[in-house]
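Hi support team,

I'm opening this ticket because the web form for multi-chain structure prediction keeps timing out on my end. I have pasted the exact lines I submitted so you can reproduce it. The total is 904 residues across two entries, so I didn't expect it to be a heavy job. Is there a limit I'm missing, or should I split the entries? Thanks in advance, R.K.
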Amino acid sequence: MTQENIPVEELLELVNAKQLRKIKTILSEMNEVDVASFIEQLDSEKMMVVFRLLPKDLASDVFACLPIEKQKEIIDSTADAELTTIIEDLFVDDMVDMLEELPATVVKRILKSATPSTRKLINQFLNYPENSAGSVMTAEYVALKKNMTVEQAFAYIRKNGVDKETIYTCYVTTAQRKLEGVITLKDLLMSPYETVIEDIMDTHVIHAMTTDDQEEISKTFNKYDLLALPVVDHENRLVGIITVDDAVDVMEQEATEDFEIMAAMLPSEKPYMKTSVFTLAKNRILWLLFLMISSMITGNILGHYEEAMAKVSILVTFVPMLTGTGGNAGSQASTMIIRGMTLGDITPKDIFRVLWKELRVGIICGVILSAVNFIRLAIMYPGQELICLTVVISLFATIIMAKSVGAILPIIAKCLHLDPAIMAAPLISTIVDACSLIIYFNVATVLLNAYL
Amino acid sequence: MTQENIPVEELLELVNAKQLRKIKTILSEMNEVDVASFIEQLDSEKMMVVFRLLPKDLASDVFACLPIEKQKEIIDSTADAELTTIIEDLFVDDMVDMLEELPATVVKRILKSATPSTRKLINQFLNYPENSAGSVMTAEYVALKKNMTVEQAFAYIRKNGVDKETIYTCYVTTAQRKLEGVITLKDLLMSPYETVIEDIMDTHVIHAMTTDDQEEISKTFNKYDLLALPVVDHENRLVGIITVDDAVDVMEQEATEDFEIMAAMLPSEKPYMKTSVFTLAKNRILWLLFLMISSMITGNILGHYEEAMAKVSILVTFVPMLTGTGGNAGSQASTMIIRGMTLGDITPKDIFRVLWKELRVGIICGVILSAVNFIRLAIMYPGQELICLTVVISLFATIIMAKSVGAILPIIAKCLHLDPAIMAAPLISTIVDACSLIIYFNVATVLLNAYL
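Hello R.K., no limit was hit. The queue was backed up. Here is the completed structure from your submission:
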């Protein structure tokens, strides 16, 4: 839809025909993301030929967009001098992402090719804990001084802004690099040239600490509609910034993680198609095992009522309907609560309001579903009023129970500093299954006393 | 974490003590998002007192951040002249969001208070279909002409940029408002003053059409790391822009919708705590009913084998383990595939690669889970080799079947132009439940022939 169509076919023909000059002209006009996705499709040899054609600036932008295997291939077939150019042009955050994935020998070679100051920076950034603000931020920001005039600030930005990740939000720091204020390029542009930065900067700077969790960071971006967020160390010194595009990546990554955890998997690091079969199996087997063993308990409960089922054998045919509906009702509730907590709409102190809400939702759903069942059973099993009543009462109680369990468990998980996402469909269903069978057979025992 | 703590307690005391000047000073320094979340907590009367204290610029920013009920209260107790000021200061996208929620009488009053040009714009924007690019975009962008010099462009931006939603990406249009090029403020700033825009603008503009789906829009933002995306009509005339903060909102909203659909609910429009019990119940009941009726089929299958279960009563105790594990294995697969399709990593043409992958994952998981079960059964039921074998074979076959079903159904849904998210845990579990019982009792019939 949005972008102009990329002439992949035409480009491939040109590559095969070695029409290098034409390729160069076309690629130079294209967006780096599109160039990268074209290059990715070529075999190693052709990829290197095409990559070398790219103008220097585009080359490092394209390099940053390539997947790690392709980056490694390029590094392996690039001479040290050229490698230095690529490395020095990369933003620190992209560099760190890459280094974390590459084998140690390649990392060594890269660090050797980097200038001493870049090397120092990389080493510092590699030390921040995974998923912290420090691991997402980059070092290329514009730092102004508060006694500069707007005119001086513009001169500074024109001179130093080219290789900054953003120039639209500028930070004001002291000589000791402590964060004092923030000013947008828009504010600068809207102010007279002689204005002093101190008079127009905003001193209430929304900022993060290097150790803050990346999930919190993306929430802050969302709440305040930021383009960039400054990151300070424990002495309030500005050490980096996070730009909105990286915050968006974090958001998507966290959502993907939640989807995976909520489907009883360990979160994966790579896209599905690039994850090996073994890794996929490894991420899934633990929860499958745990849930399988838990469901054996449900089996034992069923076994416990073997006699009742043998006597009133029709009872067993309602088991899938009861446990299934209970599981679904419960995971509807838990999904809403988990997502609400992720988005910050629900906090643990809302527990009673949530429970009260789910109880009422449960009553409405329970009444409707029980009524439908009552009609069906009355038609299908005429004269079996007690069995009909057993099923209907059990269904109603199961739905209320399921909604309550689904509402409360994610909040309890949060209070215990566990990820609420584990309290999603699979675990809730397993718990609700067991509870609904206990309800069912107890109701049956009371009502069908004469038969059992 | 990131922002300075908001002195809510102190502010509330000041409001009660009617220390209006002090309140004004504190609020004027605060971020509009924080002011809005403070104001929200006050009762109507106090809210109006505090809202009127706000400087004009801040007032309309705060207004845009308030929830719809509070906006309505403010509109109701504001005189026409004042209302015009607020309206004219709002961005069209925020205005449209608000108008779509307000009762007709209030909408009429707002349109009456707006200037004719604003009124025309609002009416145009209200006509774009829901969830289209047109419904998310705003009209406040910077449009330059290609024969301007950089210096003229800066003069233009300084004069007209204040009330634009962004000035960091500027668009170059013809006299007929056709989109010709794009240029960032950074490019302008890095170029000499006498440069003509035409020479430095990018003519390959990534753009959207008014009718494009908002989900595609947010994918484009993500792919190209954009700050703004221009939206054109069918004659390539620039009609609006979408900024990254709105694209991020769309992203979160689409993820929330997917979570809800995947847990068998109709997507909700509002946050959980603000949704009424009836709406929650209404969103859930349809799927609960449908799944309940489907699970009756599973019950009938179970009923079909009543006799077998009566003879070898231990068989029934393995049912929850088989159906549960099958459901979990299947929804693991379907969740990965659904999410992969949402992110664009998996397309329908990958169907065979996906299936082959899931088959192998299924074999690995199946072998491990069956082995664990074999050991457990051998210990718990010594001498019952055939029953043990029945369970183990059924479990293995169920897992393979579940992974395949979970892999294929979301892709088929996509091909049928249905939302793949409906093929998540609830529906997959219901389908897998029925299939696993058929597998189980067929294996049992063959192996336990003598007993049955």
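A quick check on our side: Chain A touches chain B through 119 residues (CB under 8 Å). Let us know if the file doesn't open in your viewer.
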